[in-house]
Design a protein that fits this description.
It contains 16 helices and 13 strands. By secondary structure, the protein is α/β, with parallel strands linked by helices.
Length: about 375
C-alpha cells in the first residue's frame, strides 16, 4: 500500500438508528471520531437512517417484522435473523467495495465475513469488539484482532489468543458528552422529570426490563420495599404488567424511551444509577452515568470494579436485600453521594474519554 493512501475503514452497525443499544452508541461515536483522522477514510454501514457519502444504509427486514418473528421460532431469535439478512447485503456490498479494515461488534457478521473473506475481501483485516464471555475458538479463527471491553472476559480469552497467535487488546468503550447536542424538547423533558421527582430520591435504570440477563427482578423486589421517599425512572422498554406490579399507586414510577442525546439530560437529575446485571458485556450507560458524576451500584465483579474504581459501589446483585440495605444506609446515601459524585467524574475523565483512549483505538486500524 502506498504511504500516502488513506486506510479505508468500514464500521458495521446493523441496528443503527432503529435499535437503542450500547453497540450502536459506540459505533456512532467511533465513526465520528475516526472520521476526523487524516489517515483514514471511514464509512459507517448501518441498517436504517439517511444515506450520505460516508454513511451507507443496507436496509433489511427488522427484528419485529412477522417474518423474523416466525423464523425466530424455528431457529435462534428474531434479532438473529435481522443479522443474517444484513449479512447477505453486507456480503454483496463488500464484493463491490474494498476496505482495508472492517470493525464489527456482532458475532454473526464477524464469522460470516470471516468465512467468506477470500471471496468477498481478500486482504481485509477484521477487528472484532466483544464483551461476552466465550471460550469458543471461532472468534479466534476469523478475527484478526479482538478488542475486549470486559476485563473478566479478557482474562479468559487472552491465554487462548496467545496460543493461536492472535492479537487481543483490552480497550474499553469511550464516551464524549460533547459529541452531540440534545434533541429538541429537552427543556420540557427536564421539567417533566423534575416534576415527577419532586423532593424524592430517584433511582435511574437504563435498558429493557424483560431480558433475563438484565436481572431486573432483583431491583424490582428491592424497590417494593423502599419507602415513599424513593422513586424509579426507567429509560427503556417495560411491559405493562411490570409497570403495574412496580407501581400500583401510579406515582412512584416513570418510564421513558429516549434518544441517546436526550438521555444526557436525564443522568444529572437522578440520585443513583443501578445496573443489576450479573454479566454485563461492558456497560456504556454506566460510564455515561460516571461522566455526569452520578453514583452507581453494580454487581460485584472485577469488571465492575474496573468500571467504577470503587468497591463501595459494587454489591452482590443476586439478592434484593443487598440493594435495599445499600439504599437504606444513610451514610452511603446522605454523606457519601457528594464525595462519590466528584470521584466518579474524575475517574471517568482519566479513564473513558476519547482523549485518553485515542492512541489505543488508532492502533486497531493501523497498518
Amino acid at each position: 500500500m502506498m504511504a500516502n493512501k488513506k486506510r479505508k475503514v468500514a464500521i458495521i452497525a446493523f441496528g443503527m438508528e432503529h435499535c437503542n443499544r450500547g453497540v450502536e452508541t459506540h459505533a456512532r461515536m467511533l465513526f465520528e471520531r475516526l472520521h476526523k483522522e487524516s489517515g483514514m477514510d471511514v464509512f459507517l454501514i448501518k441498517g436504517s437512517g439517511k444515506s450520505s457519502a460516508h454513511e451507507i444504509v443496507l436496509s433489511v427486514p427488522k427484528r419485529h417484522t412477522w417474518l423474523n418473528r416466525f423464523l425466530g421460532k424455528i431457529r435462534g431469535y428474531n434479532i438473529y435473523w435481522e443479522q443474517v439478512w444484513f449479512l447477505f447485503r453486507l456480503g454483496f456490498h463488500l464484493l463491490r467495495n474494498r476496505y482495508d479494515v472492517l470493525y464489527t461488534q456482532e458475532y454473526v457478521h464477524m464469522v460470516g465475513v470471516g468465512k467468506m473473506r477470500k471471496l468477498l475481501a481478500p486482504g481485509m483485516r477484521i477487528v472484532y469488539c466483544e464483551g461476552f464471555i466465550s471460550t469458543h475458538g471461532t472468534r479466534l479463527k476469523y478475527a484478526d484482532i479482538l478488542q475486549e471491553v470486559n476485563k473478566d472476559n479478557y482474562k479468559v480469552l487472552a491465554p487462548l489468543a496467545k496460543e493461536c497467535g492472535k492479537e487481543i487488546k483490552l480497550i474499553p468503550h469511550f464516551f464524549d458528552p460533547r459529541w452531540e447536542s440534545p434533541d429538541e424538547g429537552w427543556e420540557k423533558l427536564k421539567e417533566q422529570v423534575i416534576e415527577f421527582k419532586v423532593d424524592r430520591k430517584m433511582i435511574l435504570y437504563v435498558g429493557p426490563t424483560e431480558l433475563r440477563e438484565k436481572n431486573f427482578h432483583v431491583l424490582e423486589q428491592a424497590f417494593h420495599k423502599l419507602g415513599s421517599d424513593w422513586c424509579l425512572l426507567i429509560c427503556g422498554e417495560v411491559p405493562q404488567a411490570c409497570r403495574t406490579s412496580l407501581d400500583p399507586s401510579g406515582d412512584r414510577l416513570k418510564v421513558l424511551c429516549l434518544t441517546h442525546s436526550l438521555m444526557q439530560v436525564i443522568y444529572p437529575l437522578a440520585d443513583v444509577f443501578i445496573l443489576p446485571s450479573l454479566d454485563e458485556p461492558f456497560g456504556i450507560a454506566t460510564i455515561e452515568a460516571l461522566s455526569h458524576g452520578l453514583p452507581v451500584l453494580l454487581h460485584d465483579t472485577e469488571h465492575s470494579l474496573w468500571l467504577c474504581n470503587d468497591p463501595n459501589q459494587c454489591i452482590d446483585m443476586r439478592e434484593a436485600a443487598n440493594i435495599l440495605s445499600k439504599l437504606q444506609d444513610k451514610t452511603f446515601v446522605e454523606e457519601s453521594f457528594e464525595q462519590i459524585s466528584f470521584k466518579n467524574q474524575q475517574y471517568f475523565l482519566k479513564t473513558f474519554t476519547w482523549e485518553h483512549l485515542k492512541k489505543d483505538y488508532l492502533q486497531l486500524f493501523a497498518e
